[in-house]
């Protein structure tokens, strides 16, 4: 692969990861925590109504996980294309 | 008997105060020690701590930088009054880090300069763009820092019983000392220490209270557990019940409109990702992969506090209602009277029955409680040991000082680097620039202190504006600069100006009411979007204007397109000093 093609392929894969992770980011916060909050509140886990829990706890935990998943994916991708340091 | 009571109270008060002096004294000594150890000797050390900070240290520093007096002192209280609606702050102020880690931090680190206007100026090959960016950075940072200085003053006055203004001056001197001496290097390592202090100070009371109320030592689980009194009732159900009984909305249910909740959350997320004092922290690490990793560590460390805050909110509100609601005023505990004297709790016996009525109906409600009480007085309400009460003061100061220092650095770098070095006098020597940087830090501390002592009436309104401004200006310009190679200076400049102006106009009209002499009613908001949420609309406007103007103007020069190609690839990040 030429350097230019390599860069292009690397960027394309990166964009794909970003879009997938941002879709999850959107779903847990704006979806579960806000738009579908009332429906999810019908489900109770312990003392928490599920929609309320996503809004005040769950979405934050997912955010942390998303960043670390991205770190792992990108470290692998950097290696695959030889762009790591 | 009365005499004995008095002397007992005196003794207790004295020992909380002694504890406060001891804890605040120790932490201040640590900050000063670090400042002396980490003096900056070059502009690179002053602006980006030499560029060799480890991801863990940078994550801790970012977390302390980010969590201000508002996060530490006010947030849990705001949530405890807002219930579910408080989630806009929790999600808004953490979700922005996902955007930072995925869309901004790695690329800005690869770009490898000193400031945010550096990126805007170079990427958009234009002095105008740089000046617009400097202007935004200064407004955002100054509004923010004034609030921090005030926070320092308030903590001093409440816990150490000095004048608020004396407190502001003591805070100014401490920040001056380590920001001017150490620059980013000094700030980074003091922030690491400040993170430890503030997280310890926040968690200890929360854990104590969680055990007291639910028997569960983990507050995040505790507030979803059953009460420890053996009744078998869930704490949240009980609070929902108490709220309804007093005429409030159910705690786990909101009262804001759906569109406004969406708009505010997005504005806060995007604003967080666009704040210059947060972005600049990612210039201090060695490699691109470190920038990603430290964003993750920073968010993890922030979420420790942010996921505890809603638990504290529930504990504090339940405790507060149970302790004072429908109780005789003569029987209230000592903390009630103490905080009453600070004006943060006010009781007016409207029906003269000597009993405290705390209800949603404003005409019958007799008790007004400031947001800040929920964290500041929580340990006292729960009858925790004196040293825990004192710890809160040290934690509040750590939170306020660390954020103030980070903001002051952005201000001084904007002046000495972006204005003096890049625009007014490019021939300035390294040594001269370092002196200019230190002098502008001194100037910035003085201005911030002035605003702390004489807070303009609109400060509270303007702090919310800082997020809207950052969302409306920096975020689209940076994201387009990285992800859209064809984006040119005409588009970016027009977008930033339209975004900021739209945000300013909406705020001035609907938050400050300067156009109509009164603040217009909620019902006049566009589509029910509050000024706090308007950052989202202004950001979208920026994107649309940028892209439209770009379509009709010529593509950026080849060198600039190469810069974009280059920042997308992590290898060869090199030193931040490369100019």
What value does the average pLDDT of chain A take?
94
Order of helices and strands of chain A: HHEEH
For the terminal residues of chain A, how far apart are their CA atoms?
20 Å
Secondary-structure element order of chain B, N to C: HHHHHHHHHHHHHHEEHHHHHHHHH
- The percent of residues in helical segments of chain B reads over 70%
Largest sheet of chain B: 2 strands, antiparallel
Mean pLDDT value of chain B: 87
| Rg over C-alpha atoms of chain A, rounded to the nearest angstrom | 18 Å
Beta-strand level of the residues of chain B, as a percent range?
under 5%
Shape of chain B: globular
- Give the helix tally of chain B: 23
* Percent in strands of chain A: under 5%
Q: What name goes with the CATH superfamily of chain B?
A: Sodium/glucose cotransporter
C-alpha Rg of chain B (nearest Å): 24 Å
Total of DSSP H or I helical runs spanning 4+ residues of chain A: 3
Spatial shape of chain A: elongated
Number of strands of chain B: 2
Structural description of this entry:
The complex is a heterodimer of chains A (85) and B (579). Chain A has 85 residues and is mainly alpha-helical. Chain A has one domain. Helices cover 80% and strands 5% of the residues of chain A. Chain A has helices spanning 3-35, 37-40, 50-80, and strands at 44-45, 48-49. A two-stranded antiparallel ribbon of chain A has the order 1-2. In chain A, α1 packs antiparallel against α3. The longest helix of chain A has 33 residues, at 3-35. Chain A is elongated, with a radius of gyration of 18 Å. Chain B is an all-alpha fold. Chain B starts with a helix and ends in a 12-residue tail after the last helix. Chain B has one domain (39-461): Sodium/glucose cotransporter (Up-down Bundle), CATH 1.20.1730.10. Chain B has a two-stranded antiparallel sheet with strand order 1-2. Chain B has helices at residues 2-37, 43-48, 55-66, 69-82, 87-111, 116-123, 127-159, 164-214, 219-222, 235-245, 258-274, 276-279, 288-324, 334-341, 373-376, 378-381, 386-424, 430-453, 459-472, 474-483, 489-512, 534-552, 558-567, and strands spanning 345-347, 367-369. Chain B contains 23 helices and two strands.
């Amino acid at each position: 692969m030429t350097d230019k093609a390599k860069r292009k392929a690397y960027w394309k894969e990166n964009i794909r990861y970003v879009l997938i992770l941002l879709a999850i980011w959107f779903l847990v916060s704006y979806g579960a925590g806000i738009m579908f909050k009332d429906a999810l509140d019908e489900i109770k886990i312990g003392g928490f109504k599920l929609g309320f829990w996503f809004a005040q706890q769950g979405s934050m935990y997912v955010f942390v996980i998303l960043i670390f998943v991205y770190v792992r994916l990108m470290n692998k991708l950097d290696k695959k294309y030889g762009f790591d340091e | 008997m009365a005499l004995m009571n008095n002397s007992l109270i005196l003794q207790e008060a004295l020992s909380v105060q002694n504890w406060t002096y001891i804890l605040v004294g120790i932490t201040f000594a640590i900050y000063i020690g670090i400042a002396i150890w980490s003096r900056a000797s070059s502009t690179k050390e002053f602006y980006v701590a030499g560029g060799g900070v480890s991801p863990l240290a940078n994550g801790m520093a970012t977390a302390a930088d980010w969590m201000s007096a508002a996060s530490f002192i006010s947030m849990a209280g705001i949530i405890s009054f807002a219930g579910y609606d408080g989630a806009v702050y929790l999600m808004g102020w953490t979700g922005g880090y996902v955007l930072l880690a995925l869309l901004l931090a790695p690329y800005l680190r690869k770009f490898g300069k000193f400031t945010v206007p550096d990126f805007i100026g170079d990427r958009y090959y234009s002095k105008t763009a740089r000046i617009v960016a400097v202007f935004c950075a200064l407004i955002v940072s100054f509004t923010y820092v004034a609030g921090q200085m005030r926070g320092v003053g308030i903590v001093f006055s409440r816990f150490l019983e000095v004048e608020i203004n004396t407190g502001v001056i003591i805070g100014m001197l401490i920040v001056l000392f380590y920001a001017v001496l150490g620059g980013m290097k000094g700030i980074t390592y003091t922030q690491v220490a400040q993170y430890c202090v503030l997280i310890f100070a926040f968690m200890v009371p929360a854990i104590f209270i969680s055990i007291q109320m639910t028997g569960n030592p983990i507050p995040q689980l505790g507030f979803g557990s059953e009460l420890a009194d053996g009744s078998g009732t869930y704490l949240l159900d009980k609070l929902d019940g108490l709220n309804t009984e007093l005429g409030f909305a159910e705690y786990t249910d909101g009262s804001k409109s759906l569109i406004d909740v969406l708009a505010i959350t997005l504005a806060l997320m995007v604003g967080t990702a666009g704040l210059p004092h947060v972005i600049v922290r990612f210039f201090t690490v060695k490699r691109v992969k470190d920038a990603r990793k430290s964003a993750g560590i920073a968010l993890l460390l922030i979420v420790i506090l942010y996921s505890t805050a809603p638990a504290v909110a529930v504990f504090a509100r339940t405790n507060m209602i149970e302790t004072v609601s429908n109780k005789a005023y003569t029987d209230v505990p000592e903390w009630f009277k103490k905080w009453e004297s600070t004006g943060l709790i006010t009781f007016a016996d409207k029906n003269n029955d000597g009993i405290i009525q705390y209800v949603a109906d404003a005409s019958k409600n007799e008790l007004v409680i400031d947001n800040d009480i929920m964290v500041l007085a929580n340990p006292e309400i729960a009858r925790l040991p004196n040293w825990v009460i004192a710890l809160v003061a040290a934690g509040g100061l750590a939170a306020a000082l660390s954020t103030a220092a980070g903001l002051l650095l952005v201000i001084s770098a904007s002046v000495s680097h972006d204005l003096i070095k890049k625009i007014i006098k490019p021939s300035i020597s390294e040594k001269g620039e370092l002196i200019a940087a230190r002098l502008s830090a001194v100037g910035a501390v003085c201005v911030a202190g002035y605003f702390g002592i004489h807070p303009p009436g609109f400060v509270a309104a303007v702090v919310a504006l800082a997020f809207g401004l950052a969302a409306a200006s920096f975020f689209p310009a940076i994201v387009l600069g990285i992800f859209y190679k064809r984006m040119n200076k005409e588009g970016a400049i027009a977008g930033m100006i339209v975004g900021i102006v739209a945000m300013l106009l909406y705020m001035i009209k609907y938050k400050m009411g300067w156009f109509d002499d009164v603040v217009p009613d909620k019902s006049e908001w566009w589509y029910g979007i509050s000024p706090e949420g308007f950052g989202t609309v202004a950001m979208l406007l920026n994107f649309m204007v940028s892209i439209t103007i770009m379509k009709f103007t010529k593509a950026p020069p080849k060198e600039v397109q190469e810069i974009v190609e280059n920042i997308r690839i992590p290898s060869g990040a090199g030193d931040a000093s490369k100019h």
